[in-house]
Amino acid sequence: MYFSTLNPLSRSLFFYLIFSSAAIAANLSETITHVKASVVGIGTYSSIRGIQASYSGTGFVVADGLHVVTNAHVLPEKIDTERNEYIGVFVGINPKLYQAKIVSVDSIHDLALLKINGPTLPHFSLGSMQKVKEGMHIAFTGFPIGPVLGLYPVTHRGIISAIVPIATAGRSTRDLNPQRIQQLNHKPFMVFQLDATAYPGNSGSPLYDPSTGKVLGVINMVFVKGSRENVLKDPSGITYAIPVEHVYALLKDSGLSPF
């Protein structure tokens, strides 16, 4: 057998890789059970339109259990108050709906902070960008293709494949939106490039350490091969996330402690 030809050092490395992968998988399973109650859907709700609820992305609960972080681009450009429309936070598989208001928006880093009108929810703890290294295992939980699959939290895992400037984390001018233009007009900041697959609906998902569940970043875009239709049928497997340091700044500017 091939295994019998390995020298002692190679055998030790082989067993280390096997057992470390098994340990990561076991820790992730426990972590998912702990954190998924803090992952929420983001959208709008109107009691008088045909389809009352409209889902646009993912968010996660932070700080005092009444605040939610998501991407700025997940929020609607405007709210139709004449049709009783408001931003909604959807919690649970059979979702409870909480009305939310915008507390703060950081368009440069594509982040937004909401406050819900309801009881406190389980919240995430924030980690440190300083501990993020290339090759590090990560996971993120969200609601990919939410309108189709429903609000069942789905977890993907991968690694930090690179830490790159935001200016390089795009494909073409067709990917530009107001947030991207603002980002490019300022000094580029570093983002995490992931070897992991995200889908529409994952925007705003928490990127976290599989062992601790501490948030390391926020999923905000994917690399698209060819046309946008390929996002579903032929995903690139390259995803980008905003580092957690910008979440800390968002909370601090709003007078909140990350806990």
TrEMBL record:
Write out the GO MF terms: serine-type endopeptidase activity
Say if the entry is tagged with keyword Hydrolase: no
Q: Can you say what this protein is called?
A: Putative Trypsin
Using the record, list the residue span of the signal peptide; answer none if the entry has no such feature: 1-25
InterPro entries, per this entry? Peptidase_S1_PA, Peptidase_S1_PA_chymotrypsin, Peptidase_S1C
Q: Name one GO biological process term.
A: proteolysis
Alphabetically ordered keywords of this record: Signal
